[in-house]
Amino acid sequence: MFFERPDSGEVAVLVHIHLPDEKDREDPGEFLELVRSAGADPVALIEGSRSQPSPKYFVGDGKLEEIRDAVTSHEAEVVLFNHALSPSQQRNVEQALQCRVLDRTGLILDIFAQRARTHEGKLQVELAQLEYMSTRLVRGWTHLERQKGGIGLRGPGETQLETDRRLLRERIRQINKRLDKVRKQRDQNRRSRRRADIPSVSLVGYTNAGKSTLFNALTESDVYAADQLFATLDPTLRRIVMPDIGPVVLADTVGFIRHLPHKLVEAFRATLQEAQEATLLVHVIDAADDDRDGNIREVNKVLEEIQADDIPCLLVYNKIDRMPGYEPRIERNDQGEPERVWISAVNGEGLDLVLQAVGERLCDDIFKGELTLEPSEGRLRALLYQQGAIIDENVSDQGQFVLEVRLPEADFIQMLCRVGVDPKRYFPNYGVEDFMLDSDAELS
């Protein structure tokens, strides 16, 4: 499997073909970063143009000869294509070059195999690898043949290829069974958070946008963060306490990339479900990337694929330290709602703005004002203190408590109902019957 790797970087020849079709177009610069992230040593980049891929080799005969010359002159150990090859194309190119060939999907799987740390992550990667390999099995030896007549020539009745496929199917079944247990455990944890009414915020975005750096800065954690593609594979959850909101669960998720293999999305379904069931998505964007708009589109495609495109989303433009003249700020829509936040996570610039924007998006309805309470209303005053809602307090000449408060409207209305105060005193348009249910249970 791909988990077995050489001690030093493998010498690699890269192949990138420019295609006119936009959906098949790849970025050579991003491909080079992928190769370096995999630990390979790129020595040559063979480029060319075609109106459409060749059915046999993906490239033409002349370009194939150019690749063969590069492999020979550099003594390359692997040829990496920046495209998705069919099993037959990969097999034909390997036979023609007498060298190991890997396409873009196989390269991404190799990176995932290196980065997986937890048991769940390794299972997810292995499942994606097995699904990928199931169509690329080649019989490596012939000692298991079909049954023949004669003493000593009777085989088990299946070829080596059939045996490999049967073993792969069995292993895939075992991994899916284990991952089902992981999904059930994650579902149970999410149900517990929903019962406790704890909002969840998931960081999503293109790979290497700075999600883990932002996560560490907001939660004071030490999650692995590096300037490389797919530094994070295993999801990490931390609980933080936010003003007006209370406890919030923040999740760091795997980054997305162009043409993310569908099998990989399927294998990481348990991980991506943290994003699918989040209260709010924080889409982290590399603001300094030349193709940031294209990256945003790719992330939105994956969110649509995992059915998370209808979840409220806050855009966070990161890495403004690489953009002279840019300062941390919040951009709002026509309704005054935070829509974009410009920050530098690595320098800690604008982190307070992120928390402010997340708080506003999680709790749209905040009651902020001055209350005048009679001495007989001490129970309401005590509950407000218990919720941490009192900003300032004074006592009037008549002995009344003058409180400056800030808290979610729903919590305040439940509080009023509990102490027997008509909410219409502060919310003329609200009906008491809408907030009486379970008010005692919520505040007990």
Automatic annotation (TrEMBL):
Transmembrane segments: none
Keywords: Coiled coil, Cytoplasm, GTP-binding, Magnesium, Metal-binding, Nucleotide-binding
Major location category of this protein: cytoplasm
SUPFAM superfamilies: EF-G C-terminal domain-like (SSF54980), P-loop containing nucleoside triphosphate hydrolases (SSF52540)
One Pfam family of this chain: GTP-bdg_M
GO cellular component term, pick one: cytoplasm
Span of domain Hflx-type G: 199-366
InterPro entries, A to Z: EFG_III/V, G_HFLX_dom, GTP-bd, GTP-bd_M, GTPase_HflX, GTPase_HflX_N, GTPase_HflX_N_sf, HflX_C
GO MF entry, a single one: guanosine tetraphosphate binding
Compartments it resides in: Cytoplasm
Family per record: Belongs to the TRAFAC class OBG-HflX-like GTPase superfamily. HflX GTPase family.
NCBIfam families linked: GTP_HflX, PRK11058.1
Job description of the protein: GTPase that associates with the 50S ribosomal subunit and may have a role during protein synthesis or ribosome biogenesis.
Subunit structure: Monomer. Associates with the 50S ribosomal subunit.
Name recorded for this polypeptide: GTPase HflX
Organism of origin: Oceanospirillum linum
Underlying gene: hflX
